[in-house]
Structures are given as structure tokens and as C-alpha cells.
Amino acid sequence: xxxxxxxxxxxxxxxxxxxxxxxxxxxxxxxxxxxxxxxxxxxxxxxxxxxxxxxxxxxxxxxxxxxxxxxxxxxxxxxxxxxxxxxxxxxxxxxxxxxxxxxxxxxxxxxxxxxxxxxxxxxxxxxxxxxxxxxxxxxxxxxxxxxxxxxxxxxxxxxxxxxxxxxxxxxxxxxxxxxxxxxxxxxxxxxxxxxxxxxxxxxxxxxxxxxxxxxxxxxxxxxxxxxxxxxxxxxxxxxxxxxxxxxxxxxxxxxxxxxxxxxxxxxxxxxxxxxxxxxx
Amino acid sequence: xxxxxxxxxxxxxxxxxxxxxxxxxxxxxxxxxxxxxxxxxxxxxxxxxxxxxxxxxxxxxxxxxxxxxxxxxxxxxxxxxxxxxxxxxxxxxxxxxxxxxxxxxxxxxxxxxxxxxxxxxxxxxxxxxxxxxxxxxxxxxxxxxxxxxxxxxxxxxxxxxxxxxxxxxxxxxxxxxxxxxxxxxxxxxxxxxxxxxxxxxxxxxxxxxxxxxxxxxxxxxxxxxxxxxxxxxxxxxxxxxxxxxxxxxxxxxxxxxxxxxxxxxxxxxxxxxxxxxxxx
Lengths: 280, 280
Hints:
homodimer; alpha+beta; CATH 3.30.1330.10; Phosphoribosyl-aminoimidazole Synthetase, Chain A, domain 2; 7-stranded mixed sheet; 4-stranded mixed sheet; globular
């Protein structure tokens, strides 16, 4: 299949979205924003041998590639509008693999009302993709990382330390329900210890963690440090009611900014860091 | 340098843009659109060994990665607002190479008022990057590929068949000046023969090319089929004045859609196709 035919095939399945004036097929996609909305933008790479194994199912890789970016939209309290997908594959995998990848990606796109607005196709010696998602929400209502205050309670959704090979379900509804309530919010993509450290750095505070909800079959170590949970980490004013499906794990405190303690002991930021080889 | 330090360094140099409420450092960038504007989105990959050689200068790769996406914004008549940059590099090139790449990219970003709003960093066995640009223009004024009509004159900017290693200068001012004048427009990224074929397909027309402006030291063959010119290809109603720095190359005609003739002979779409190995 040549590039034009492949683009035609993808275009037929791309879906529509409120505001998307022109999708796949021109130099750019055209989007007409609504009045009184802010737009959110995020992008996440999925690289063979780094983010997924060469024998991973193309359907799962496609689902996950979009799910990771949707999780960032959820973390800001947004609703997804459209995505752009850049994909590079070896020539010999150009048809079947690409078709299955788009099947996985577009299945999740339909369920979350995310139109495929465009992207870029190329060949490369191994598989690489990058998914950009645009989300929207009422003006000024985005959930940021920098608003946590001493005294706030810290929460996570779901349970942490889940194995890689489950399907990520981006917490879009939860994120939207936290607008105007959470003082800070982010998604857990690099492990609780590193991500909570980042939230505390941005907010200029420290944190005390008392307990974490560990996934069945997982360990406390993995729940604290493993990346790729894609649950939401957020803070609420002290005494708030926990939203359904979430657990209070500790409190925001004054202290040297970025410092996180777990049951009284220093918890070093040991999650996934792309520029430091893992020590274990 | 670890990921947090690298992100801090990039963040300090990222620039500002009208409408960019929140840039690098959170789950998403936040952009507040202006009333009565449409937004444009495009994304382009640059892959080591495919789009550039391993010994290419990092500064040049950074410049080119942004220039290619800006060229798509120019082709729609837009003004750039911000970009997102996804970059994966081998660990051993994580510091110096990345620093020089951003120097090249941010130099062009400053000159074109494109803020760096965010992105994603990862490691990989070879260098990969993907640059997304958001542009804006008055509502309904985007230059599309599908408006060429029989009788229109066909134009290109500059001269075609330039060697790879020059710095691309995206034709932003020209694109903006064509709003409300050009009936169709696109940028030349895969060679005139393939790109004009695509424009004709989208517009449901055919084309007769009489002559093309060949770059000094290049050949007619390269001017017709080589990719990577990044000049604008556009159509104007018959009898329009040629904009400065552009040449009329032929006419839009009725006929089987997508068919392009050069001096009376069929010109097959032989430009760069990522999914067909080049036959030369």
C-alpha cells in the first residue's frame, strides 16, 4: 500500500469532532475554538524497545499511545477534542501493523470523542509514534500542578503498581469532576515518588505520605516507584469528601520544596527518568 | 544532566506567545484562543538516517525540524503561535546534541514568534523528533488544497531543486499575503510532480505545466521530482499579478482529476513517497 492509499484509509475512519473544520488531507488541520474555552495541548512518545516490546500487539500499542496523552488531558480537567498522530514504521510492517495500530487507537478515540485530525507517516528502522491531543475546558478552570497548599489532603485514583500490560483507562470524568475543587492535579506517569516530588516542586511545598493503595498482586515498592500507572494524583482542601474511586494518601506540609516523606522517612524521587539509566 | 534539569534549561529559553497561558512544566500547555480566529495544526517527523544523516549538525537539524512544520502553516496562510517538540536521543548524546538542537530550533522560533509550549523527552537508539506547530488566522481564511478551478494559473515561489543542506526559510509572509487571493495553496515537501498531483486530486482538476524555475546548479529532473523544496505551490485566478518572488508555471485544466502534464507529456507523480522505496 502506498502513502496516499494509506492516508485515504485512515481518513475514512478518522471521526468528527465539534470545532474540527478540516481534518486529514491538507497541510494543516483547521480547528475553530469555542468562545470562553481554554485549549490544552500535550504530546507523548511511544518508542519500540523503550515504551513497548517488539512483540507487543499493535492494537495495544495504538490504544496505549492515545491513552497516555488522554491521561494528561484528564489531569488538567479537560475534555478531548482531537488528536494528531505521527507514526514511523519499518517498510515491511507498513500495512498490517499500521492498520492494527490505528484500530487500537481509533477504538479509544471513538469512546472518548477524540477526532483524528491529522499527523505524519514515515518509515524508520523501528517503530516510533508520537500522539498529540488537544483538549478543552471552561476558561481559567484548568487543574495545574502549582496550587497545592500546606494542609491540603493528597489523593490518588485507583490502585498503584499495576502491571504494564493492562489497558490504561484515562481518568477523564474524574479530572472533569475535580475542576474548581482540586488545588493541584497531575497524572502518574513516572511513579508516585517522582511525580509527587514534581507536584511539590511546582507548588513550593513538601508532602507526607501515610499509605498508598497497592494493586492486587503488586508490591509497595512498585506502587511507590513504578511509572505508567496513569492514575490521577491530586490535592483537595483538608476535610473534603474523597471522590468515588480515590484514596487519601497523605498531606501537603510546609518544608523544603519538593521533599516527600513516606511514613516519616525520606522518599527519594526514584521513578522513571529518561535521562538517568535505571539503577535496578 | 537529568530530565528535570534539562527541562528547566529548555523552559528558560522557551519564549512567550500571545495566548499561551501556561507553557512547559505541567501535564499540558494551556492556550487561550482569540475570538474570530481559526487555528491550524501540523506535525512533521525528522528521523536520523531517513530525514537527516547521522553527521548532520544538531543546530541545522533543530532549525529544519521547526522550519518544515512552519512551512505547512505558511501554506495555509497562517501566523505561527506555538510549537510542541517531541525528541528522543541516545543517552550519550543527551546533553550536547540536545542543547545544540534546541539552539537551532529556538533561533528560528524567536524570528517567527513561535513560542515553545511543551513537548516530550525520551531516549532511543537513534535520534527521532516530531515538531507540532499551532498557527492562527482570521476565521474562514485558510488556504486549502481543494479550491483550484480550471482556468486558474499555477505558481511556485523561489526556484526548485535546491540542495538539501540549505536552511529552509518558511514562506510565512507570502502565505499570509495570499489569503483571499489564492484559490488553492500547499507547500512543496515531496517534489512538484507528486505535490501538484495531490493538489489536483483534492481540487478535482488536472494541470498543464509549461516551465519550472530551476535552482542554480540543479537540474530540471530534480526541480520536477525532488522533495524538500519547501516553496509554496498555489493557484490564482487567470490574469492575476504574480506576487513578488514567484513564477507562473502553468494552468489548471479540466481533465481526469490528478493528472499532471509537463510540456504536453504525462508527468507521473514521482516525488518522495515514504511507503514506496525510491526507484530513482
